[in-house]
């Protein structure tokens, strides 16, 4: 039971530190949305949020994500549109 409590405390501490230090990156449609979004994904840390504002994002290639616990969000199903 002591081992479980110790692991649970460490898990909670890790979760709390991720939430406390997470950041949000806001991206708007631009001439090169692929580069902006991919750069944000490369620089992201666990717990970060990448928010795409409403608009059309024409991407030249697929995006690559190598970070756990990352949120990629938009304004809504008919508001933020990604085209590959």
User: What's the average pLDDT?
Assistant: 85
**How many helices does DSSP assign?**
2
First CA to last CA: what distance?
50 Å
Largest sheet: 3 strands, parallel
Strand ordering within the main sheet: 1-2-4
Strand content: 15-25%
C-alpha Rg (nearest Å): 16 Å
Number of strands: 5
Shape: elongated
Q: What is the string of SSEs from the N terminus onward?
A: HEHEEEE
Helix content: 25-40%
Q: Tell me the structural class.
A: alpha/beta
Low-confidence segments, ≥5 residues, pLDDT <50?
Answer: none
Q: How many structural units, i.e. domains?
A: 1
SSE layout:
Elements: H1 2-21, E1 24-27, H2 33-43, E2 49-52, E3 55-58, E4 71-73, E5 80-83
Parallel strand pairs: 1-2, 2-4, 3-5
Short note summarizing the structure:
By secondary structure, the chain is of the alpha/beta class. It is 37% helix and 23% strand. It has one domain.
């Amino acid at each position: 039971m002591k081992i479980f409590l110790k692991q649970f405390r460490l898990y909670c501490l890790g979760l709390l530190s991720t939430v406390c230090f997470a950041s949000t990156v806001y991206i708007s449609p631009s001439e090169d949305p692929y580069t902006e979004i991919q750069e944000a994904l490369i620089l992201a840390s666990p717990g970060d949020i990448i928010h795409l504002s409403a608009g059309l994002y024409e991407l030249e290639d697929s995006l690559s994500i190598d970070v756990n616990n990352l949120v990629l969000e938009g304004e809504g199903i008919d508001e933020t549109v990604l085209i590959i």
